Amino acid sequence: MRAFLLLTSLLPALFFSGCQKKSDLEFQRAHDPWVFRSVLDGRPRMLTAALNDDLWVAYSAQTGALYKAWRGSVNFDGAVYTTVHGPQPSSLGDDWFVNQFDNPWSVIRNGTAEKPEVDYKGHRFIKGQVHINTELKLKDGARIRVSERPEYVSNDNNQTGLERSFSVEGLPEGAQLVLDVNVSSIAFENLVRTDGQLAALKRTPRQAKGLSGIDLEGKLTLNSNGTTHLTTFFTRLPLIENANKVVGAEEEETRPLGYRLIQRNDCKTCHNTYVQTVGPSYVDIAKRYRNTEQNVEMLTLKVKNGGAGSWGETVMNAHHEVPDEDIKAMVDLHHEP
Ligand code: HEC
Q1: CA count, 13 A, side-chain hemisphere, 42
Q2: Which of 94, 219, 246, 333 could cross-link with 291 by S-S, CB 3.0 to 4.6 Å?
Q3: Which residue's alpha carbon is nearest to atom 32 within ligand 1?
Q4: Based on the number of CB atoms within 10 Å of its own CB, is 257 exposed (0-12), middle (13-18) or buried (19 or more)?
Q5: Residues 6 or more apart in contact with residue 139 via CB below 8 angstroms
Q6: Cα(279) to centroid of ligand 1, in Å?
Q7: Is 101 in the pocket of ligand 1 (CB under 6 A)?
């Protein structure tokens, strides 16, 4: 038997429920916490940012280099969770693009290019956005500080966009800082916009999901000691198949709304689909209670007010700030053969 706690009704309510918290009004982040460090797709020390339901990005927390941008989410449990190696989060959903450059930076001085050494300096939050900081070290000891702020944007055509905003400090006089970039899932080259200097070097057509797109590779020269934006608007669907698809996880992908509601709340810090953690597993809860209106009502109240006693001594915190209809949707036990 498979059982899920997920949204089965009230789909229209979801669109409003996402903006309950005042502080989240500006940005609708797709996960709580929306920035986190973990292993991702088998890569150690990754920093993931759930910018929007349609746009997740991950960076290496060793080099600050972008790993990829995708639409979907991160699967924290399921088959992989129960392996002896513990949780191995993996990305769910297809990729807008996968960055091809492990060390994308070069510094041009007097016509020669130098690959700097990259020091990752961690991330910071400023006004609800995340900044990923690195320091580039040159052979002569000069240090350039680069901060990248990724953000979800959309345009009049409702296209999902990724805006990467770079600020640079300490670039030596006369030097140029160049970033190797590549993007996919774009319909036209002019859907990549920048106030820096982008030299396109390679264009490869790509057909997928009945859509045509281009893969574009190029070099972006950043504005010296200032801010440079690089904004990419994507095709209707991501054109790169996720190479890290977990067998069995596709199912969860087809239920993104219910999945997201649980993702947006703190439930997963104490609950897992299959194994007991702080609280009982969803499967165990679904096994104990039949899907009746009364049970859903009772469990909704329980989650709202918190408490202990049904499963042991451990207390579930109250969720007064979560709208009733959201809780109801999350505990609506959905049994499947
Ligand atoms: C701080 C940890 C924690 C968080 C966060 C949490 N739970 Fe729980 N949950 C528990 C514990 C512990 C129990 C067992 C309580 C008991 O024994 O009565 C529980 C029990 C439950 C039950 C079964 C209640 C019963 O009486 O059988 C449901 C349903 C549930 N949680 C859903 C949720 C949902 C939905 C969320 C997110 C909105 C959530 N939980 C967040 C710890 C947590």
Answers
A1: 4
A2: 333
A3: 303
A4: middle
A5: 114
A6: 6
A7: no
Contact 61, 228 (CB under 8 A): no
- The protein residue with its alpha carbon nearest to ligand 1, atom 26, reads 310
Query: How many A from CA of 313 to the centre of ligand 1?
Result: 12
- Ordered per-residue pLDDT tens for the chain, 337 residues: 333 444 333 333 333 333 334 344 478 898 888 999 988 988 989 999 999 989 999 999 999 999 999 998 888 764 444 444 455 788 988 999 999 999 999 999 999 999 999 999 999 999 999 999 999 999 999 999 999 999 999 999 999 999 999 999 999 999 999 999 999 999 999 999 999 999 999 999 999 999 999 999 999 999 987 899 999 999 999 999 998 876 555 555 555 455 667 777 888 889 888 888 899 988 889 889 888 889 989 999 999 999 999 999 999 999 998 888 888 888 875 543 2
Q: How far is the CA of 265 from the centre of ligand 1 (A)?
A: 12
